[in-house]
């Protein structure tokens, strides 16, 4: 007689890529599969197709590919057998960029049900997975990848009966996309750099500093032309209008980071990015449970996204914002910034198991793999107009994983 084991699926989807994992009720990772972008609001732009249908089909295919890794079907695509064991997909938790609001959540769930996904389906935004992947009971996650958003999850009472992502005590700032937000993101950095190059080209800079930045502007122009494979600024227009590709535009930021040290114009854009990222955290400060401020090491903050690969570039602006506003937020004294050792998709599996069966304690028993990005007390910084690297005794440069 075969042993029956429940499976909990977790998906972490963004504007650039999507990862799906399956976790058994015993805490074992059974399968993992990577796919393309699944933000329903940005998919289909230009082709005039339904982004929700495209995203849902990609999500469904990822789940099936993961199920195929376990073993052959038994009566259903979502029941598989392996070595005298029967694995049944009990629930899937979708943590997606572009989800989180009721309209998007309901639409994605409906599309997946129409495709035949036969299990419980939970839909939420893409910041939920990193929180539960990194912390046992609450914290903040700040995402600065293609886009940007910050979410706070306050500690959950053990007796709480959670039935959906909406029941999680959470608050958010940002996440409004490139037209209404994305401050501090890779897209934001790239757009600011391109706008500066355009303004310089059009003689829109009126500070009488053109001759001082001529070399920097020319270097920036060359890099932009190289990235987009163009030889004039007019050729940029399709990338932003008729054939908009947010992730490709955001990809310019990785190249900008390589010239930022010696290019003052680009360096200042990165510093301003750090300032904008910190604003997301300050916006949520009044909502933070006091228990989180007293956590060992300080306020736990998970940092996700490619922009944090350039932490030494964005940290001056990040700290400047915190020190500027320190008088208004007395509780904000010590920060513990961490990154994932790998992706955060398991976090989606963990919270999905909790939503499906409150008695499961996978969130508490899961062995987390996180790395320290930085740790500091805000009071250690005296000057906030400009913060050089010498003012960061605790800062470390590490190889941060690719965008979560």
Automatic annotation (TrEMBL):
Pfam families: BcrAD_BadFG. Residues 10-310 form the ATPase BadF/BadG/BcrA/BcrD type domain. GO terms for molecular function: N-acetylglucosamine kinase activity. Its EC number is 2.7.1.59. It is an enzyme of class 2 (transferase). Belongs to the eukaryotic-type N-acetylglucosamine kinase family. This is N-acetyl-D-glucosamine kinase. It comes from Brachionus calyciflorus.
């Amino acid at each position: 007689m075969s042993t029956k084991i429940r499976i909990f699926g977790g998906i972490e989807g963004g504007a650039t890529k999507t990862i799906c994992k399956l976790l058994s009720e015993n805490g074992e990772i059974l399968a993992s599969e990577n796919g393309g972008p699944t933000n329903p609001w940005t998919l289909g732009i230009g082709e005039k197709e339904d982004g929700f249908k495209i995203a849902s089909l990609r999500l469904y295919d990822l789940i099936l590919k993961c199920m195929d890794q376990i073993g052959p079907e038994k009566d259903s695509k979502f029941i598989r057998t392996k070595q005298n064991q029967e694995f049944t997909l009990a629930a899937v938790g979708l943590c997606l960029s572009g989800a989180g609001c009721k309209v998007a959540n309901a639409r994605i769930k409906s599309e997946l049900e129409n495709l035949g996904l036969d299990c419980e389906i939970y839909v939420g935004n893409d910041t939920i997975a990193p929180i539960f992947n990194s912390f046992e009971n609450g914290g903040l996650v700040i995402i600065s990848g293609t886009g940007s958003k910050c979410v706070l999850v306050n500690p959950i009472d053990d007796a709480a009966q959670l039935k959906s992502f909406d029941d999680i005590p959470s608050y958010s700032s940002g996440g409004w996309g490139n037209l209404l937000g994305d401050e501090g993101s890779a897209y934001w950095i790239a757009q600011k750099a391109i706008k500066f190059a355009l303004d310089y080209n059009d003689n829109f800079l009126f500070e009488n500093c053109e001759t001082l930045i001529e070399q920097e502007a020319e270097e920036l122009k060359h890099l932009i032309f190289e990235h987009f494979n163009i030889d004039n600024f007019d050729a940029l227009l399709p990338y932003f209008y008729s054939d908009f590709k947010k992730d490709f535009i955001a990809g310019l930021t990785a190249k900008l980071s390589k010239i930022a040290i010696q290019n003052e114009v680009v360096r200042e854009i990165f510093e301003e990015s750090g300032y904008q990222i910190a604003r997301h955290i300050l916006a949520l400060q009044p909502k933070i449970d006091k228990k989180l401020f007293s956590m060992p090491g300080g306020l736990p903050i998970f940092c996700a996204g490619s922009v944090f690969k350039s932490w030494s570039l964005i940290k001056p602006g990040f700290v400047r914002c915190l020190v500027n506003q320190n008088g208004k937020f007395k509780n904000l004294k010590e920060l513990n910034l961490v990154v994932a050792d790998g992706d955060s998709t398991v976090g989606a599996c963990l919270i999905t198991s909790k939503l499906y069966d409150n008695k499961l304690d996978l969130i508490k028993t899961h062995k987390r793999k996180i790395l320290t990005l930085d740790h500091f007390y805000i009071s250690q910084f005296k000057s906030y107009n400009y913060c050089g690297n010498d003012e960061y005794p605790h800062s470390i440069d590490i190889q941060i994983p690719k965008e979560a």
